[in-house]
Amino acid sequence: MEDDREWMYTGWKKGGCHTKEWFEKTEKFVENARGESTTHAVIRCPCNKCGNMYSHDKRTVTLHLCKDGFVQGYKVWDKHGESWSIVSAQMEVDDGEDVDRLDHMLEDLQAEFVNNPEDSPTKEVEELFKLLQDLEMPLHGHTMVTILQFVTRLMGIKSKFGFSAKCYKAILDLISDVLPADHKVPKDIYRSKKLLKALGMPYEKIDICPSKCMIFWRDHEKLDKCLKCGQSRYIEVVNEDGEKVKTKRARKQLRWMRLTPRLKRLFLARRIARRMRWRKNRTSRKDGVMQHPSDGDAWKALDSFDPEFASEEMNVRIGLATDGFTPFSMTAASYSCWPVFAIPYNLPPEDCMTDEFMFLSLIIPGKEHPGTNLNVMLEPLIEELKELWEGVEAYDSYMKQKFKLRAAYLWSIHDYLAYGIFAGWRVSGRLGYPICGKETDCFWLDKGEKFCYFDCHRCFLPLDHPFRLQAQEFRKDTIVTKEPPKRRTGWEITEELSNLERNGDGFEGFGETHNWTHKCGLWELPYMRALQLPHNIDVMHQERNMCEALFNTVMDFPDKTKDNFKARVDLGNICNRPTLMLRENGGKPRAEFALRPNERKEVMKWMKDLKFPDGYGAGFRRSVNLKTMKINGLKSHDYHIMMERLIPVMFRGYINDEVWKAIAKLSYFYGQLCAKEISKEMMRETRGISTHVFASRRKYSHLRSSILCSIFLSISHMKQR
Length: 721
What we know:
Number of strands: 21
Shape: elongated
Largest sheet: 7 strands, mixed
Radius of gyration: 32 Å
Oligomer: single chain
Strand order of the largest sheet: 3-6-10-9-8-13-18
Helix content: 25-40%
Number of helices: 27
Structural class: alpha+beta
Distance between the termini: 71 Å
């Protein structure tokens, strides 16, 4: 296609003395040029001023070319029909491959102004047009690689491998020495970032109190001190006279990446815009099977609250997730940084919650975790969620039209400690379990000195279930006839929060009738009371805690097992387990679920020799130490594999069959819970097992049971209903 087209530039003369060849070939070019419309009456103007940025009728395009000539470097007429079918085919690919290049997305955006060339674009679109112009400029005269393609790829490499700005500058210098003299390689990282700034994904820095009491934002933007603790907003230094002088540098800052432009950008890529309406156009749906969040009752509850919101297929449901992490090495000083991620759930299951569709919304600095002040740090995000509920103007490149984009918060996902901080409910103490609340049946362990939730699960079983009338199999001399605690609706929680009365720094009745520590700002959202599951526990965290406790107890590691001396004393007080009672001389009889030393060594050696396919599980061989007979350094994914695949295999033949069956059922439950498809009927049938999952958590003292040995025995009596 790119034959000899030097005539485009050699045949055109400034002032109008163009060659005959130039006139003939230009006329033929305009006549055969193809545009985006069906009639091709309007095409992009490739003149030196329009630069393929604006569209006109063919007569106007001819006049522009005669006056200003062709834009430089336009020897492949891809904007006028050449390779158009190839580009279109790539745009329509729906096999999950990464075909939505930035230039394709910007071409989709052009259609907004093709039919109305007189409209003046918005500032956001003008920046993208400028980006398109930079995109079409080749890096030098002997390549089709554009400046933006080069910079984005190089910046991506820098981000992936983490080399410094000096290293980046050295690479640019080397590339500049190799390329021809007319190259357009940016000189340093500053110019590279400036080029990418037009992508329209900025972030804002918001000064915050060093103790995270408040943020200096909106009405408090000009304050110098915290209104609550009185700490200075800015860093203070000592001058030459020994006096403290305030600088204009904040002591601590919150980074806020607006969610709205990121959601808008999803609809500017045609393939992604089509997939954002997947739930309305889905072809595969199985009754009674959950394949996507839209199959759950929580999604449908929000739809029932606002049918108008539910009827628009492009409205977005958003999930939030946060947790603390240490950005430095594990041996460094303690530092807890809290990122907040937003996840759009409109995408199909294969794209939902993948890396490219998880947006970093807030970065809450450390070094201490925010605690109950997390609610203060979420203010910008909550305000943005209010605006998104009302709607913002956006453009859909798939339908090629403007629309009102609305988004709603659906739920949050955390580990249990972050759950309590995020929701405003203290997750320790007698009322630590937020579902039961004041109706809890937990009790205090005298020897273990903690609250225990053992045998609190039977009330969740059907009223005619045989477990309810077994007086000796769980707590001794105890039968359960009460119904499960009623799950409070959003309306009831809203009323409860509104009736709370302050008592110093807390609320009246704290620890007795409720465990509310603060009112989460999310309850200011107009639809919050309609949500069924506003907060959720991350199953991977819970699965790891359960697997670690189960593994250490069955392996009978002295310093990690839950079957310790204190547990045996408490066991004798609350359960009828004669074979596990402490002997008169204080000796502890071996439990039938605990492995002997030689059996433990065989299991450890088996784990040491395990081999998995690449990327499946990699932590076992390096984590098992046969000399010390310990296992360390496993990650959450390793425990995930261990719980669902290895636990039933490694213990079979070493422990009692009844206990092994109980463990195998627990493993099966987690396997079904983490499957791509979840059967609602299966979850109902296994809810007896699921209650024990929450009764034997390890990490959090208010939910873990120090008498895990009795739990194993009680699980062994479970049968499918």
